[in-house]
């Protein structure tokens, strides 16, 4: 089989720790082009991952390379323009989260991919985490009964220890990031809860602050209350002010409490109402703290979906609906009202 031709736009941290090594390890693809506005980053990626051609302009790369796949690993404000340009050129797009900076952008990305007849996937890796997949099974099969409530959190000390540009990163500039911890971490959890519960979040209330970081015009600490279409209520916290990482989710159901990524050894703990507790050791979640971002299955899943022409787990509509929860939270924080996002969902 001819290998799929891959180009990566943005050769910073998520490219380095996930996209590049995972494409490199996949036998069905070839990393033929690397693009970054900082040329040395693209050169470095090329040197380490197969010698692909180096670009500083993504349009030039897409125009010239006859790509099958583009990974969009740029700052948030470029997700929509790069994805749309690639879709219009007939390329399958794997775009990092948050999908876009507005509903309109997300809609345009979906439309462009649809029109081209190509795939668009949003890289919500939390769906592929083994504890999350096991919890999804327990919920979907009805084993833990009706779900009443949840709390989910994603917090760590912030992107200065992660982004290739450290404390000078685009993550802290509203013009490029659009949102702070809510876009970086909160959207992971709105997507995760929609996936786990198998239903849409339709109402959102939020307090969103900038409390821990100086010299930034984006948020760093948020707590939201969420309600699903069937009346499950819960909280979502996203923060760059947690001195140690919290990436946990607790689900309170009729027959059990599920503790996901809450115990350092057992990534899923099921505490049944009968008194029995089952502890699963399923492998660790990708974490900034451990530096371990590979083995996410995101790239393998996307490549397989193209080769086998199967549905992607997180398509544009999914990415958009997870984004809408975050946009609803921003609106709630502004207006001091609970926001109903039902009519904005796909
Ligand atoms: N799925 C996850 O778990 C996860 C984790 C971290 C980051 N991300 C997402 O990945 C994206 C990138 O984040 P990061 O952590 O790699 O940031 P980063 O700051 O480490 O890297 C961003 C890179 O993009 C480059 N860039 C900027 N403008 C460009 C342009 N016009 N063309 C080409 N390259 C350009 C920068 O030079 C830099 O090398 C963000 O959207 C972020 O939210 C996802």
UniProtKB/TrEMBL annotation:
Residues 132-258 form the GFO/IDH/MocA-like oxidoreductase domain. Gene3D superfamilies: Dihydrodipicolinate Reductase, domain 2 (3.30.360.10), NAD(P)-binding Rossmann-like Domain (3.40.50.720). Residues 4-124 form the Gfo/Idh/MocA-like oxidoreductase N-terminal domain. InterPro entries: Gfo/Idh/MocA-like_OxRdtase_N, Gfo/Idh/MocA_Oxidoreductases, GFO_IDH_MocA-like_dom, NAD(P)-bd_dom_sf. Pfam families: GFO_IDH_MocA, GFO_IDH_MocA_C3. This is Dehydrogenase. It comes from Sutcliffiella tianshenii.
């Amino acid at each position: 089989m001819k290998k799929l031709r891959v180009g990566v736009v943005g050769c910073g941290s998520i490219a380095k720790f996930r996209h590049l090594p995972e494409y490199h390890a996949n036998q069905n693809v070839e990393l033929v082009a690397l693009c970054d506005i900082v040329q040395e980053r693209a050169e470095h990626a090329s040197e380490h991952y197969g010698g692909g051609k180096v670009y500083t302009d993504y349009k030039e790369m897409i125009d010239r390379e006859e790509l099958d796949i583009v990974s969009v690993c740029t700052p948030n404000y470029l997700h929509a323009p790069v994805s749309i340009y690639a879709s219009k050129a007939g390329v399958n797009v794997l775009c990092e989260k948050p999908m876009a900076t507005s509903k309109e952008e997300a809609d345009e990305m979906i439309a462009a991919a649809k029109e081209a007849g190509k795939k668009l996937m949003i890289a919500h890796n939390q769906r592929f985490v083994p504890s999350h997949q096991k919890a999804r099974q327990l919920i979907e099969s009805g084993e833990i009964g009706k779900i009443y409530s949840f709390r989910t959190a994603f917090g760590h000390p912030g992107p200065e220890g992660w982004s290739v540009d450290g404390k000078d990163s685009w993550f802290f500039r509203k013009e490029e990031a659009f949102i702070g911890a809510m876009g970086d971490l909160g959207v992971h959890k709105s997507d995760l809860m929609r996936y786990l519960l198998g239903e849409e979040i339709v109402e959102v209330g939020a307090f969103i602050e900038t409390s821990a970081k100086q010299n930034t015009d984006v948020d760093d600490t948020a707590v939201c209350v969420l309600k699903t279409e069937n009346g499950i209520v819960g909280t979502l916290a996203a923060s760059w002010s947690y001195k140690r990482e919290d990436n946990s989710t607790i689900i309170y159901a009729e027959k059990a409490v599920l503790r996901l990524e809450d115990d350092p050894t057992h990534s899923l703990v099921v505490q049944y109402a009968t008194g029995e507790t089952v502890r699963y050791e399923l492998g660790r979640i990708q974490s900034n703290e451990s530096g371990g971002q590979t083995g996410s299955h995101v790239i393998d899943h996307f490549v397989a979906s193209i080769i086998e022409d199967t549905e992607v787990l997180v398509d544009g509509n999914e990415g958009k609906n997870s984004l809408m929860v975050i946009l609803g939270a921003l609106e709630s924080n502004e207006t001091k009202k609970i926001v109903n996002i039902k009519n904005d969902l796909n």
